[in-house]
Every structure is written in C-alpha cells, then in structure tokens.
Design a protein that fits this description.
The structure is a homodimer.
Chain A (H helix, E strand, L loop, with lengths): L2 H8 L16 E5 L2 E11 L10 H18 L3 E10 L3 H13 L4 E7 L5 E10 L13 E5 L4 H6 L4 H4 L5 H7 L5 E4 L4 H12 L1 E5 L13 H4 L8 E5 L9 E9 L5 E3 L14
Chain lengths: ~280, ~280
C-alpha cells in the first residue's frame, strides 16, 4: 500500500468527529466547553533526519514539527507526550531547549530501544477559533508566512533551517480568527497548497515569482516542492491585511480541471514529500 | 544511558503538573472541570513483537496496551491517535477489530515508512476518580485481576494471550473509586508491584502461592517476572471486597529495607522488562 492508500483505508475505520475525516493537520476535541487540538507526528532516523544528527537537533525538530501543527490550528500548547527511542544527554538538552523556548511542559510518554531510532510526539493545545484546511473560497487570497526554501538550502549541510524549524505559534494564534483556511507547510509548499485546494474544493493559483524564497535559493521549483519549511499557508478574504509578516502568493479560484496551477499551468508531477 | 537514567533525566525538564513527575501510567489534564487521562506507548518489531507477526495482531496490541493504561486510571476512552509505520490491509483489519471491540474512535495520527516497524499510540480518556500508583498504605491488601503468566506461556508460540491482550477497562472503572493505588501489569507482576510500593513509600509483601497463575504455568517465578499480562494491580483497604473478579496476592506493609518481599524474602535481581 502507498501512504495515500493506507490513509484512505484508515478513513474506513470508526472515526471520532474531531478527526475531521483525517483530512486536517490536527484533531479537535470539545471538553467542558473548551476546544482542544491534538496532533501526532513521528520522525525517524534516515527518513526525517540524517544518521549522525546531533540528538539535540532531533529533539528540537520532533517537538517543533508538532507545535507547528498546533500553530496551524491557532492553538496555544498545553503540553507534549514524547515516545522516545532511548537516547543520550544531548537529546535531553535539545528537548529542554525547545520546551523552554515555547513554554511547553512535558506531560508524559514512553521510552523504547530500537535501531534506527524513531521518535513520536503528541502535542495538545487549546484554541478558540480552529481554522480547517477546508474553508478556502474562490476569491480568497493565498498567503504564506516567512520564507520558503531555507530548509531545502540547508539540507545538504544539515544546517539550522533544516534541523531547527520555528513553529509559528504566535502567528497562528493571530491569524486563526481571520483566515478561511490554514495549514502548515511541512511536505512542500506546492503539495500543501494543492491539498488545501482539494480539501476546499477550489483551485489554488500560485505565482512562482511571488513566493518569498529564502536567500540562496537557486532552484525555485525544487525549493517550493521540498518541504520542512514549517511556515503557515493560509487563505483569507480579498481585502484582508495579515497582522503578522506574510506574503501573498496567489489566489483561490473556482475549481477547475486541476486543483493547483503554478504560473497558470499544470505543475510538475512530484510536488513534495510522500512516504512510499 | 540506561532507561532508568534517561527517565531520570526527563524528570529534570519542565514538567506539567499532570505529568505526576513521570511516575505514573498516564498523565492527567483538567479541562473545563473535566479530567482527561492521556497516555502514550510505542511498540517496535523485534522488541515488543516478533518479526513476521500478523499486522492485525500488531494493531490490536498497540491499541490494547494503551487502553490498558487508561483502564489502570479508571478512564473511559475518548479516542486514540496512531503513529503508524506504513503497513497493509491486515493492520487496518486489526485496528478495526480493537477499535470496534472497545468502542474507541480514531482521532488522528501520522504515517511514516521505517524498518524495523515502530508504532506509537496516544490514548485519551475521561475519568472522575484517577487512582495513582502512589496511594497504597501499610495495611492495604494487594490484588490483581485475571490471571498472570498467560502471555509468558503464549510467547513461544506467538499465541493469543501474548498477541491480543485484554485491557481491563470495565474493571478499572469499577475499581477506581475504591482503590488506594492502581496500575496495569505490563512489565512483570513483581517489577510492577515493586514500582507501586516504591511510589507509595511502603513494602509490597507478595505470596507466590497466592498469585492466580494461568493454566500451564510451569515456572511461576518466571511468569511473575515476564510481563505483557495487562491485568490490573491494585491496593485497597483491608476489608475491601472487589466488585470485579480479582485475587488477593499480598499486603502492603510499612517500608522496610526492601520495597518488595516475595514469600518473605528478597526477590531475584531481574523482576521484569526494562529497555537497555
């Protein structure tokens, strides 16, 4: 089974209404009048980071990618549970850095011993407005926070933009009440934009020249198809001025033959990262 | 670092009060006047199950061991998030069986591709009384539900007691309001009894002859040191009659030189499973 087939099969299982048909970054749970946001992402040695990577960077990335999903849903983190492969003091050091940086306490988890190492994290947050991927409407502008392609640029050198992503928590909370759809850019800007368009039943028309590429980006199409950016992609009504730094990269239009157009044309077949 | 050293290092991180100093089966979170119970356990091929095991059994065990932690805290499941290694239709089938058997919906999760396979699960439940491991008092009786050693017996043949544990959800909810301490038996009855005694600052005195061993148990000490039973171990005041089938296996006494005595003597050094 491919990843897409596996996820399609998971959708046939008994799903919680807050699972949103497994089509969003995170689940929601209404408890005692409050809305919780829950997300789980794993990272594996040799898949999400290179063998030999400093365990401090692994711990940072593990927590940061999960906080990024909370950010995309406008949530304030409550805590994280960590499924750790038995590691060393550097892992503890990196975990302390990321937890302290984002004021997130550890709630629990477990430890196993396995090679290659795999780490899981469940992040829990609370939110008042939870934007979905599904709400973008024809006419909405498409925006992205920060820059795209820094992780792609830093991948070869195992540099900081690749190893230590910044979850856009404050930006997510500021944007959530105003946007029609929001998600984080984890698998590639173009792939994620297509996913938002498909979920919202519209077409995303993106201008490559409008994308705020990081300094040093040489192959723009590759950078927009790489992933690991952990910026926020969002749709908002035409007149909306974002309260945080963001760049308009395109427009949402009535669903056409394709869910994604790049500079008005069909994009290349491989848009981003999918597990096989 | 050993598992114990790693967990000790995790305790130096910023912890949520509901993490209970990482000394319990699960974390608790009070949201809008309700108490949530959260737990995360991972299972890995070659560690928690044998290579070649039917993925349906892997899915069952993954969810069941997490529901067992909810059971130990008297919680009713709300949902699970699954961190899956890309698998096949048998995995989906087993996941459906366990979710339907215990009426637990899927909330979310993620999929990665890694060899050997590792699966994580976060289970979330709600509870009114949450027994901790810490509340056993001298004079309390020590009890265990069900039988001990069936998983040990079935390990060699990859039999059902090893592959398909039964989380004691109904028993846990019935017991929770009455017990002084409760936990599930996942790493070995003797090791887990010692952990409860240490957490409660008392000594657990256990009679090997009193333990309800499964039919076919030959080496009783090995069976009590094996794990994978997923029964509930609990302490309750002397006159307590459990509302569910359970067997009294010993008594909690004032803390002595050792946290655990088996038939009045020091137990063997290796009591159960610890990751190294």
């Amino acid at each position: 089974m491919t990843e897409a087939e596996f996820i399609a099969a998971l959708r046939t299982l008994p799903l919680h209404p807050g699972a949103h048909d497994l089509r969003d970054d995170a689940a929601t749970l209404t408890i005692g009048g409050e809305t919780l946001v829950l997300t789980h992402d794993s990272i594996a040695e040799g898949v999400h980071y290179k063998p030999g990577t400093d365990p401090a960077d692994v711990a940072w990335k593990l927590v940061a990618v999960n906080l990024s999903d909370l950010a995309a849903k406008g949530a304030e983190p409550i805590g994280v549970l960590i499924g750790a492969t038995l590691s060393d003091h550097r892992f503890i050091h990196g975990l302390r850095e990321v937890l302290e940086t984002y004021s997130v306490p550890l709630l629990g988890g477990d430890t196993i011993a396995v090679t290659p190492a795999v780490f899981g994290c469940t992040a829990i947050g609370r939110a008042s407005h939870v934007p979905r991927r599904t709400g973008a409407r024809p006419g909405d502008a498409l925006w992205v926070t920060g820059q795209i392609g820094a992780a792609y640029r830093d991948f070869a050198s195992n540099g900081p933009a690749y190893l230590r992503p910044t979850p856009r928590l404050a930006e997510g909370r500021a944007l959530a009440p105003h946007v029609t759809a929001m998600m984080d850019v984890s698998d590639g800007l173009l792939l994620d934009a297509r996913r938002m368009a498909e979920a919202s039943h519209c077409t995303a028309e993106i201008s490559l020249a409008a994308i705020p590429f990081a300094p040093g980006t040489t192959d723009r199409l590759a950078a927009a198809s790489w992933g690991d950016d952990y910026e926020l992609l969002f749709a908002a009504p035409p007149g909306f001025m974002p309260p945080v730094p963001a760049t308009r990269i395109g427009t949402c239009t009535t669903a056409g033959a394709l869910p994604l157009l790049v500079d008005g044309a069909a994009p290349p077949a491989r848009l981003g990262y999918e597990h096989r």
